[in-house]
Design a protein that fits this description.
Layout: H1 8-12, H2 15-25, E1 29-38, E2 44-52, H3 54-57, E3 60-61, E4 70-71, E5 75-87, E6 92-102, H4 106-115, E7 127-136, E8 139-142
Antiparallel strand pairs: 1-2, 3-4, 5-6, 6-7, 7-8
Helix pairs in contact: 2-4
Length: about 140
Amino acid sequence: MNPGEGSMDRYLATRDGKLHKLWQDDGLLSMRWEGIVRHPLGMLVPVVLVELTEKGKSDAAGTPNSGFIGIKMCEQQFDRITGIEISNNDTAAKVEYTWKLANLTPFGKRQNEVLGQGAFCGNLASQADSILMSLYDDGWRVAQ
């Protein structure tokens, strides 16, 4: 093991460590160094206990006691309808639309700072998509 390999400072020099440190500085989580273990593939892996603070828990998603908590980074928002193509005697339609990622949480903002376009919410530009719809007696529904 190299000098400093099994330390919190070494971990904080990694991409994930830098991001966790920023989140800690923002009061979103706390970190505690637990040590280092050897992965089954042979590499040494840092073990850092990360816990959300009350402030950070506001963006948590998932089951708190599962051992893993998802963190909301941003929201997917409908943007606009860009086209409608009707077919099958006016009973089916392909609706083209755009959506975008918006409303970055503090976690998402920091992740974008560190990872840029590689971040989960790194691409805030509108994205094109489409969906098939069917006409029923009571109106249009998403086709199953």
